[in-house]
Amino acid sequence: MKSASKTEPTLRVLLVEDVAADAELEVREIKRAGLRVSHRIVDSEKDFIRALREFAPDVILSDFSMPKFDGMDALRLAKELAPDTPFIFVSGTLGEEYAIRALKNGATDYVVKSNLVRLSAAVERALAEAKLLRERRQTEAELEIARERLQEREAGLRRAQLMAKLGHVITGPDGSFESWSDTLPSLIGMQPASMPRSTREWLELVHPEDREALRAKSIEAGATGQRVDIEYRLRRHDVRQVIEPLGGQPDAGGIERWFSTLQDITEQKRAEERIKRLNRVYAVLSGINTLIVRVRDREELYREACRMAVEAGQFRMAWIGVVDREAGLVKPVASAGEVRDFFESAPLAVIENKPGGHGLAGRAIRGKKAIISNNVKNDPQKLMRKEMDERGINSLAVIPLIVDGEAIGVLALYAAEVGAFDNEEMRLLLELAADVSFALGHIEKAEKLEYLAYYDPLTDLANRSLFLERLQQQVIAASSSQRKLAVSIVDIERFKTINDAYGREAGDKLLRQVADRIKSAGRDPTRVARIGADHFAIVSTDVESEDDVGRLTEQRLATCLGPAFRFDGRDLRLSARVGIAMYPGDGDHAEALFANAEAALKKAKATGERYLFFAPAMTERIHENLSLENKLREALEKEEFVLHYQPKVDLRNWGIVGVEALIRWQSPELGLVPPMKFIPLLEETGLILQVGSWALRRAALDHRAWAEQGLKPPPRVAVNVSPIQLRQRDFVRDVEQAIMEGIAPVGTDLEITESLIMQDIHATIEKLILLRKLGLQVAIDDFGTGYSSLSYLARLPVETLKIDRSFVITMLGDPKTATLVHTMITLAHSFRLKVVAEGVDSEDQANTLRLLGCDQMQGFLFSKPLPVEALIPLLRKGLDENGPAGAAPLTS
After folding, report:
1. Which residue from 573, 577, 658, 760 has the fewest beta carbons nearer than 10 Å?
2. Are 277 and 228 contacting, i.e. CB atoms less than 8 angstroms apart?
3. Residue 541 has pLDDT above 80, yes or no
4. What is each CA distance from 381 to 107, 375, 451, in whole angstroms?
5. How far apart are CA 766 and CA 783, in angstroms?
């Protein structure tokens, strides 16, 4: 901070503010920068206009919204009555839209009241810009006056040298120099003795790129006999030449002699270029300040800053690099302009003794100051000379980006001009880099605040607020797709005791380990949160049923808490209770689901359950299913599954033509369990794959045993195939392995439901063809319930259709169903398929099916499913000619 000098002029500050305390804070902040301040406070339009006239402020600081006066009205009046006075908004309510609007309406800058630390810098910058603008206007006014005077006097005083840096030369018809003014040699930087003697020699002094233009203008003057003027470059000067005829007319034999006035405009050109260059930098600075208002993302800030530097600042190239401390490199994160493969050979190391550490980026980072090369061709370092030449770069500046006193990156700018980075331009560029650094610091602080608002800093998991937001999004997604989801709240038991016994630091280490295991156990860590000291929350979206959630919870508890936790040389085992709520049954929004999961957890802790659903009946059913699932796994290991067989009977002669194998579970604890009690659970858990393979193998073994026992020919055995089995890629190979222990030719058939076949008809046809080659026959089970396409039915490699028992049961009392059964039989026969009717329980049903042309039947009329030991006598005995006991002969 600089101290105020007694000789330093007093800064007159006009404050448009209705809160005196805020005005005093603003004045104090300016004084802290070492400025002498005289101020006046107004809060109405009348007082504001009077102050503009009487007080003549150097700068205006205005609030945006006041009870008596509007900040935008103050800006409008200031632009009318004091257009050159900088106007800065200082407000606590200025949003992005109004900030941009204010800057577009002519405001110099804006400062938020909550961040007055920028105020003094903004005031100093505004005053400097106003001063530069006044100087530029004065320079332009002086140049314009000079041009006007020259134009006014050229008519009568063309041949006189009216001002400094003017010279003239008179040329003859052959282009020879007849005479020239005494000022001409010094004007072009030559000794009188070395002056050119003709226009041809003069052209040798002209820049090669401008020679053709000068030659063309000279030809134009000769052809028209009129005055022409042109600006071009000599070796070290820029000149303006006016060529005028001296007597004679083009149509009277041509003009004999010419008078050329030359003016050295080098300084003027430099001033114009300087003003143009500074205007470009001002445009970039203004764009960056506007960007800071709205940007919330580092990448966007980097990208837009580089783009503005190239488009608005007209730099040849720009890039921003960020320091990677671990790698010791400045890593480019955004660029614009002629970049191409520039970074492939750029020295970007931060550490000096590393390869590339001698580069400008590393020097700027280490020294925390800008590194400039205003003429890369003459730079003794000779860094990347080839790359610079290819891109037309002649000067460059690498400016460090400093946040909280640390150089975190660089802004690199490359210009086509030699000497582009003078003191004035560097002052603005340093300010630009400071604004980018300020924006980065602001973004970093905002990210920290946002992180603390939404994340648990100990575990890096989402906190309760963020979890509820994400949960609500998942609920909306589940609602639109009609899916279920589960919310689980996990309570680590006796964690307070661990904290008390081993200390808070040890407890924190343990919590981090728990969090890591929970994250690793799921596919998406964003679905996990820490919602309390020892509470975690999990949302599960890939669930189809409550049973899935129960199994998933068991797996999580085993994975996350099964292995011991080790810290400080100790092994510690943890346990947990879990409360679960299901969408949509337990709530239709996040808050309700969360509250109900907490209620379930509370009850689980009270009852001692490891986990508990919000609906107690659901928990009981899940426990039953899980218990049954464990028993099924044991049953598979202990070979408790058995096959019962139901005969298929030829309707013409009542002979047994085959049997259907049906899985039964002979449980030592539960007795003979019916299939509907356990088959769905086998399919849900995937155990059906193992049980299905067992059934195929057992059927093949039984068929071989019948043959070995003298049953010739032994009846073919049909085995039902589960949808899960058929969908397996290796289904055909699995079937082949399962029937290998049977006899040849193969006596095993497969029954596949009609709806299952139609799910993936092309893949199914390919598999059935391969099964046919193995010697298996295929029947379509439950025909009439699956909406088969007749075109596909004709292509299916099957031998048999089985009419679903629902049609057989109702056909006697419903003529339409009887017609439908007849149609199915006729259709099957047209495709040369056999027809089997299922569920035949009465003689009337059997007689009707025979009259309709049905080939075979199975049902309780003949026999219920029998264990193999009861089936063998039936197979040996066969049937007498009168059919089963108690049944009358079938008549046609």
Report:
1. 573
2. no
3. yes
4. 44, 11, 45
5. 20
Task: Please state the rounded mean pLDDT for residues 265-270.
Answer: 79
Decide: 82 and 106 in contact? Cβ < 8 Å. no
Q: DSSP letter at 404? A: T
Two tokens at 615?
């609906």
Instruction: For residue 743, name the pLDDT band (cuts at 50, 70, 90).
Output: confident
Q: How confident is the model at residue 153 (pLDDT cuts 50, 70, 90)?
A: low
| Contacting residues for 54 by C-beta, under 8 A, at least 6 apart | none
Alpha carbon dihedral 36, 42, 46, 48, in 10-degree steps, equals 40
Buried/exposed code over 265-285 (b: 16+ C-beta within 10 A; e: otherwise): bbebbeeeebeebbebbbebb
Number of alpha carbons in the 13 Å side-chain half-sphere of residue 340: 6
User: Rounded to an integer, what distance in angstroms lies between the CA atom of residue 795 and that of residue 810?
Assistant: 30
Calculated CA dihedral for residues 360, 363, 369, 375, nearest 10 degrees: -30
**364-382 b/e (C-beta count within 10 Å ≥ 16 → b):** bbeeeebbbbbebeeeeee
For residue 260, the one-letter residue type is S
- Which string of b and e fits 632-662 if b means at least 16 CB within 10 Å? beebbeeebbebbbbbbbebeebebbbbbbb
pLDDT above 70 covers a percentage of the chain that reads 90
Q: What is the pLDDT of residues 622-660, one digit of tens each?
A: 566 667 777 888 888 888 889 999 999 999 888 899 999
Report how far apart, in Å, the C-alpha atoms of 435 and of each of 296, 430, 646, 753 are: 14, 9, 87, 72
Closest CA to 331 of 321, 340, 341, 339: 321
Question: pLDDT at position 16, please?
Answer: 92
CA 661 to centroid of chain Cα atoms:
55
Identify the bridge partners of residue 560 per DSSP, sorted by sequence position. Answer: none
Question: What is the distance between the alpha carbons of residues 572 and 551, in angstroms, rounded to a whole number?
Answer: 25
Q: Which two three-digit tokens encode residue 750?
A: 């497969």
Report yes or no: 578 and 489 within 8 Å, Cβ to Cβ: yes
Are 66 and 16 spatial neighbours (Cβ–Cβ below 8 Å)? yes
- Say if residues 793 and 778 touch (Cβ distance below 8 Å): no
Residues listed for the chain: 892
| 409: β partners | 322, 401
Which residues pair with residue 259 across a beta bridge?
A: 170, 244
**44 CB-side CA count, 13 A:** 3
Global pTM reads 0.39
- Which of 154, 176, 189, 350 lies closest to 264 in space, CA to CA? 189
Sign of CA dihedral 874, 875, 877, 878: positive
What number of other Cβ atoms are within 10 A of residue 531's Cβ?
A: 20
The amino acid sitting at 620 is E
Predicted confidence at residue 842, as pLDDT, reads 92
Cα–Cα distance, 129 to 263 (Å, whole number): 32
Q: Indicate the helix (H) or strand (E) that contains 39.
A: strand 37-42
Contact 826, 614 (CB under 8 A): no
Beta 109-112 vs 87-91: how paired, if at all? parallel
Residue that wins the pLDDT comparison between 746 and 153: 746
Report the C-alpha gap between 610 and 519 in whole angstroms. Answer: 20
Burial of 223 (0-12, 13-18, 19+ CB in 10 A): exposed
Angle formed at CA 719 by CA 663 and CA 727, multiple of 5 degrees = 100
Residue type, 217: K
User: Counting beta carbons within 10 angstroms of the beta carbon of residue 706, is it exposed (0 to 12), middle (13 to 18) or buried (19 or more)?
Assistant: buried
Q: What is the CA radius of gyration of the chain?
A: 48
Say if residue 789's pLDDT is above 70: no
Is-cis flag, bond preceding 713, omega within 30?
yes
